[in-house]
Each structure stands twice: as structure tokens, then as C-alpha cells.
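FAQ: What does the model actually see?

It sees only this:
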Amino acid sequence: MRWSATLIPTLKEDPAEAVAPSHRLMVRAGLIRRVGSGSYAYLPLGMRALAKAAAIVREEMERAGAVEVLMPILWPEELMQPTGRLEAFDEDLLRFTDRHGRPHVLAPTHEEVVTALVRDAVKSYRQLPITLYQVQTKLRDEARPRFGILRTREFMMKDAYSFSMDEAGLEGCYQKMREAYGRIFERCGLDYVVAEAESGAMGGEESHEFMVPASTGTGWFVQCAACGYAANVEKAGVPAPPEPEPLDYEPELREVETPGRTTIEQVSEFLGAPPDRMIKTIIYVADGEPVAALVRGDHEVNEAKLRQELNARTLEQAGPELIENLTGAPVGFAGPVGLGGVELVVDQAAARVQDAVTGANRADAHLVGVVPGRDFAAGRVADIRLVTAHDRCPRCGEPIAVRQGIEVGHIFKLGTKYSSALGATFMDPGGLNRPYVMGCYGIGINRIVAAAIETSADEKGIVWPPSLAPYEVTVLPLDMSREEVTEAAESAYATLREAGLDVLLDDRDERPGVKFKDADLVGIPVRVVVGKGFLSSGAFELQVRRDDSRREVAAGALVGAVRECLAELSSPARVAAGA
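And it is asked to produce this:
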């Protein structure tokens, strides 16, 4: 392709709204343009990178035995009612009513649709296992779209769904997909960590995320260097704290005035009590019933763990009115002592605070000298808090690191959640009808592209891995007024194309500085420079974007030299880590 014949609107300055490197560089390099909040158009370079990522995904899905289908983005709302996901997705789900008054949804993912499809087409165990996949648009009404294509309302996903007759079959499909994901991310040049994960709105029994460590990632996970344990912060277990040493005094329960102090920081400073001696009482509504979650003042409630502990389908923080009705106090003064009409779930660390500060269930007042078990019944004690960097590995007890990352893939063991709800059954060898045992497997195609940029870019611009680069090589003639230069550039362009390489010829009549800056910004892995050196020696200058290495190459050796560079840049140096 010729630069003059395509659309590459590069910018000299960073866009004002862009924060993440991938967002900033994709706009500056002319890969994307914002259409609306969380919605982007892909220009030619961006589309080529996206297509290359999708092609790698398709190749590895086929290699793993998955079969491609295409399912609609739009379907009747009633399809999601039996699975409870209308409530699970809540405001993230885009819904509308058509001209006939029928409610519809726009696909956040396709579990219900594919389950209904297989229910009607696969009747016998002899047709199992089977895995179907698609590369399709998904839509979610993201509350805070940000970081360009990392967090959007509309995105491209590869989603696959396996159907097996039993748990052993599911395990086989799950491991095939896990291995395929490893190959995909290695081919895309991404370092990644496999982390145990919370299933969330997808449901199911077990799941793993594939995280690319990055400072602008929207996800957090913990990792243990000693044993390799990794889990996202929603899933990461926290070992029970050791039994505290007995106090040499009996704490006196008493009420103290704390006017206007509603936060842990304010109360801690006012009373001179460290946050780890304080117990927060947070009121939730789980499946319509109030519940109080208690954690230490220096900890935060892990709502995924709390929901699982309660076996609740829905969980949300209570509003100010309900809190005041239950506690008799405004927000900021709730406490467990004397709190009735609500179940208490106490985090294991909070249960071992021996001389605690809590809310007094009265405005502008707190209790000091609170002892769990003496002053309130700590009946249900569980791990319900978020992990911190001060915690230890739940597997081996060694220190852990809390890291930021980009979730590029997620695999789930769904079990029979969807097949049972939708009446999707097959006839087993004994003639009985049984629900399919399912798995689902998602990859964010857009996020692969963004993650590659986030983790490899430098101060000059994008540094593509060859597998995702819009073009593998670019030819830069530096003086378009010299016939020898233009002819040599055209010859190199034609030769490389005939050899099957993706080539971009910068045929613009621009100054060398402009061409070099744009080449750095766009980040094509290898460039062939036709300039003064060619006029004096007849040799091309081969430059590698990643390390800025340069060497002269004779015309007859050009194809081999370019392929050698690309092979070196593509050598797998990425090793999966984690669970």
C-alpha cells in the first residue's frame, strides 16, 4: 500500500482527552478516532492491526477444534429472563423496545443465544463435545468509558462456548482453550499472567483471567513470586490472621461523642485510634434483604466474596434512608452493637480485633472498647475483604505483590447454569436427558491491540510486534525529486510485496524529518531507507524500530535481510506465569 493512497492522519500533539499511552498513540498515529463516549472508528492502520489480532485468534481456535459461527447482536429480552442475567447485568445492559412493543437487548455476551442454538440442534451425546466460537461486536452501557479502546461501550470479542456431557469433558475443553490462549498471547508478543478470577455476571464454578501487566490497566491482581499463585483482587484469598495475644486488661465499652466525624480517617485522628483497631459496618441489600458486613478500618469489603458467602444473586449497598431506618443513625455511624433486624457477616480479621472502635448507631457518636463476641454476636465469620499488598500468599504463606493489568482474556467453567435454566438437554448413553456441561471463553480483540501498544511503546511512538503490525515493513524514499531514489524505492516496494510481505511505501513528497517522525510514531517494525547512502553505495539502509539498529543491505539481499529481522523480532520470549 502507498501512504498517499490510504488514510493515515497523524497528529503532532497528544489529544487532550487521552491519558493512557495506547489511547494517545492510537489517535496520534491515525489508527482510531472517537465517535462518541466509549465508541471509536477504526481507520485503515487500526483496522489492519485489529484484523491481524482476530486472524491469530481464529487460527488458534481452529487449531483447538472450535468451529466458527456468527450470532446476532440483537435478541428478545425474554431469552435472558430464565438465567437471571437481566438483573445481573443491571444498568450495563443496553435494552430497548421495538416498534411492536417487544423488549430487546443488545448483546453483552452470547451465553443464552448459543445455548438455545445448541439445544435445538444437538440432541445426542454422540455429537459431544462441541465448541462453537465467533468474533463479534459486544455492547455494554459502561458507566465510565476511559483509556480509549481499553474500556468502551462497543468492542470486538472472540467468545467461544463448549458443550460436554460431563465434568471430565468440560475439563478437557477448558484445558484446550487455556493452552490456545497461551499460544494466542505469545504470538501477539504479550507477556501475560494467568490469574484465578471471580466469575461475576457470567456465573459458573471456576474461571481464570489472562492479565497483561500494565500501569494503566483497569484490573488488579495479586501474584506470588515464590509459588506462582495469581488471582485477581476479587478472587484472591486472604489467610486467617493469627490468634492475637490476650490483653492484660478488660476493655471498657463506652460511648464517645464524635461530632461530624463520619469517615475512618476522621474518627481515627479524632480518637487517636489506628484504623486497624476500628471496625466498619457497611449495610448491604442481598436479594432484597439487609445484611451488615464488618471489616477492619484499614480494609475494604470484597463484594464478590460477600455475595458468594451469602449465596446471593444480587448485592448492592443500602441507601441512606434504609441505613437510618435500620441503625437509627445517618450514614457514617453504623455499628454492630445492639444492631437488630439484620444479619452480621464479620470478616475474619475484624473478628479478632480485641479493643475496637465502632459506630454507636447514633448521630455524632462512636463506641470504644468494643469486643467482638462479647458486645455483639460474631456468628458468621468469613473472608469477605479485599486483599492488600501487606497480606501473604494463601497457598504458601510468602509475600505477594499487588499488580495492575489489562484483562485480555477470561475463561469460565459454567457447568449447567445456562443449560438447566434454558432446558438444553441431550440424551446420554443410558437414554436419559441431561443438561449440557458448559464452558465459555472470551478474548478482547481490541484489548490485544491496546495491550501491545501499552507494553511496548516508547517516547517516539508505537513499537509493534510483527504479528500485529499494520504493515511489517515500510519503504522510505527520502528525496522524491531524485529519480534514482524513487525508482529504487519502487523496486524495493515491488520486490518485498512479491515476496509476500506487508509493505507500506511512504511516497509522500515530505521532508525526511517528517517521514522519520511519522515512521517512529506509526511503529512499523522494519523500514527500508532509500537516501544518500543508496546514491553513494547502491545499498539500502535497514532500520529496526524496536532498538533503532541499522545496517546496509544490497538490493539482492533485501528480502532475506527483512525476513531475518522480522524473525528475530518475533522470537517467543514470553512465558506464561500464574495459576
